[in-house]
Structure formats: structure tokens, C-alpha cells
Amino acid sequence: MGILKQGVAAAAIGLVAASSTTSAWAEFPDKPVTLVVPFSAGGPSDKIARDLAEALRKPLGQTVIVDNTAGAGGTIGAARVARAAPDGYTLLVHHIGFSTAPALYKKLPYKTLEDFEYLGLINEAPSTLIGKPGLAANHFADLRQWINANNGKVNIANAGVGSASHLCGLVLQASLPSKMTFVPYKGTAPAMTDLMGGQVDLMCEQATNAVPQIEAKKVKVFGVTSQQRMALPALAQTPTLAEAGLAGFEMSVWHGVYAPKGTPAAVLAKLNAAIRAALKDPDLIQREEALGVRVVTDARLAPAEHKKYVEGEMRRWAKIIKDSGETAD
Q1: What family, per the record (predicted)?
Q2: What is the mean pLDDT of residues 48-56?
């Protein structure tokens, strides 16, 4: 066979192979898709993932299951997805902790930037600084004086090392001259229970989970971590921590969706399109806004921009975590 004929034959084989690969995924998904949440059921990330799962059903044409695989600050669930078959049927919904884990943990069972396909950032949620109901302070200025007067004696709860409440507490600690004692729990629910019961003093928790307790007056609220005040009725009169005295303070908890590395491009394109459609669902938007969560509509919905954003967050948090000395084993 001549060189020209060999080239034509090779090209033809390549086209057939490409066509076969594309057609093999033409029916995706033809079975339920699983969203792995690396945190306990009932927490903020779980609520967000369940809202997303419901909104994804229509554009995907399939049932979407939420599976909680909690532990080690979200790293166990993330590792599970990194090892899953790269077929688009097992996805990860992870929050800001996805970008902080490399700095918090000496050894991760996966590589954050290499073992996943990035599918898009989906939302951002501010947190609230809340305190036990019997706390003497009623405003942040009073609280700040109380923390300074009790240097090292103030307890601040979190849902575990690497959780959003832990990270928010680190930013708060970095903004204050006085030290606080971090008290980690195995999840948001037990931490919130002890805060309401007065066993701990403070908690920096997502508005998603704090608003019901604030409305029921089971905790005191001292500020929100967003750049602007929140429109939620329960928080409309609550100042941002920046305007309350911590200049430049801002911390949002974002969530993104990820697939195992090597997932076919055709599948990734379908998943990204479905996520974009889900985030335009009026019911989803209404549910998210009711929780104080903003649905992402900007360029970070694109996989490349999502990954670029996470890289920037990794650099930002690496310094904060190093300065705090708060790392996991």
C-alpha cells in the first residue's frame, strides 16, 4: 500500500473510532446519576446538593441520587469520586474545602488539580457569626471587647477541620488580636446543638443553616460575612462584619461540581449543559435565595474558569492556613 493510501486508511480508521466513541455516549445518561456529598446529611452542602439534584432531573432525563460520604473534612468523599469510573455517573459536589484541603492535610488521597474534571461553580453563600443565647454581648462591638477581655478562653465551634465553619473561623481569628479556642465537631448539627445549649460560645456558620436558629432566637447573630448586607428578613438589619469593624472581611462558601479525570468530553459537555440549565430553574433559584445563597451566572460556570478560580482559592487559603497553624494530620 502506498504512503498516500496508508494515510487515507489511517484517517478513515480514526474517524470511525471517533464516531464510535461519540455514539457510545449518545444516550448518556441512561441510568441514574449520583451526586456524592462529602459531608453529613442535613448540613448546608447536603441541602444545596439535594436542590441541585432535583433541578438536574429534567435536563438529564434521569433520577439524580444524593449520596453522603462524610469524613476527614470532605476528603473521603472526594477520594471516592476520584477513584470512580470516569463515565459521568458519579459526580462530586464539594464546597470551598476542596481548595483548602491541600494546605490542611499533609497527604491527600487524590490530586486536586489533576484527578478531576471541573464542571462549573454553582453558587456562593455568605456565613453568619452567631453566638450562644446567653452571651452578654448584643452587638459585634461588644462581642469584640468580650473576646479581647477573655483572650484564649472563648470557644468557637466548627463542623470539623476543613469544614466551612472552620475556615470562616480561621478568617475571623486572623482579623482579631485575641486568640480563640477552636472546638471541632463531627458535623454541623452537633456543633449547632451545643451552641444553642451554651456549651460553646461562638460559631461561624453558613446562613443556609443558621437562619432558622436565628429566627427562632435560639442563637444571637453578630454579623454576616458577605460584602453587602443580606436581603433575608432574618438578616436584613444585621451588618456585615466589615462595616461592624473588621475592615475588608469577606468570606463566601462556594460549591462546585466535579467528575473523575478521564470522563469523555461528550459526557462532560452534557453535564455542563445540564448544570447550566438547572441553575436557571426558577424553583431552584427561589429555594437558594430563600437560604441566602446566590446562584452563579458568571464565567465560572465554564470548566476552565472554574478550575482557574479554584487554583486562586488554593493560593489564598494556603497562606491563611499556614499563618494560623491549624492543620489536620
Answers
A1: Belongs to the UPF0065 (bug) family.
A2: 96
